[in-house]
Specification:
This protein has 224 residues and is an alpha/beta fold. The chain has a domain of 148 residues. Helix content is 40%, strand content 14%. Strands 3-2-1-4-5 form a five-stranded mixed sheet.
């Protein structure tokens, strides 16, 4: 079983590919609700470590792979003190102090998810959960070209669904059914696309890591 996880408004969306290569989706409120059945690999779109005195090399490398027109889709993880700050103003100040740059409100809004993920791997170090990035995965499967369309737009969704369908023609139908049975206040289409592509890459034999000297299975790398 292979998993792809993406944060959403109601918690986490889990895309699962089983031994028969069937895709399914489920919503869980926290990572502690991850399946208790054996999992070969789980990829999650959230940092599993914080920045120290410099921004994380894996994120700098991921941005370089995507190129200048798409690099901003990879957020730079804040300094640990900023992630664990009490409020945005404090987080912004601490990030400037330690890394020389402020913190966007968008990044601050995912800090609770970052803390949850870091805590999960600390408590469950043997669970095969590793960081990945959906846009890197789409880039890899798009013959090394970034998808310049915005994933939340109809064009962007169509571009990504085409890549997913090339892997398995039934997967878009599964995605459509997940959209039908869930509410948009809990889950958006781009959440489903991101989790699905991570599950696809988790099940692949040609999984890559960045920076290039890192190996798959290193939590200081981003997989794609």
């Amino acid at each position: 079983m292979y998993l792809g996880l993406d944060g959403c408004r109601s918690g986490w969306l889990v895309a699962t590919i089983d031994g028969e290569k069937r895709l399914s989706h489920s919503l869980i409120p926290s990572l502690n609700e991850l399946p208790r059945v054996p999992v070969q690999l789980a990829l999650i779109d959230i940092p599993l470590e914080c920045a120290d005195h410099i921004y994380r090399p894996c994120e700098i490398s991921a941005r370089a792979i995507l190129g200048p027109k798409k690099s901003a889709s990879v957020f730079l993880t804040p300094h640990r003190s900023a992630v664990y700050a009490n409020d945005y103003a404090e987080a912004n100040r601490l990030n400037k102090l330690h890394l020389g740059k402020g913190l966007s409100i968008q990044t601050w809004n995912i800090c609770n998810k970052i803390k949850e993920a870091i805590n999960f791997v600390a408590v469950h170090p043997s669970y095969p959960l590793f960081e990945a990035h959906p846009e890197l995965c789409f880039h890899f499967l798009n013959q090394g070209q970034p998808l310049l369309s915005k994933k939340a737009s109809p064009e962007g969704a169509a571009d990504r669904l085409k890549i997913i369908a090339a892997h398995d023609k039934d997967y878009p139908n599964v995605i459509a059914e997940t959209m039908r049975i869930t509410k948009r206040k809990d889950l958006k289409l781009d959440d489903i696309l991101d989790a699905t592509i991570l599950a696809i890459r988790a099940s692949a034999e040609d999984l890559r890591a960045t920076p290039a000297h890192k190996r798959v299975g290193d939590r200081a790398a981003i997989l794609y």
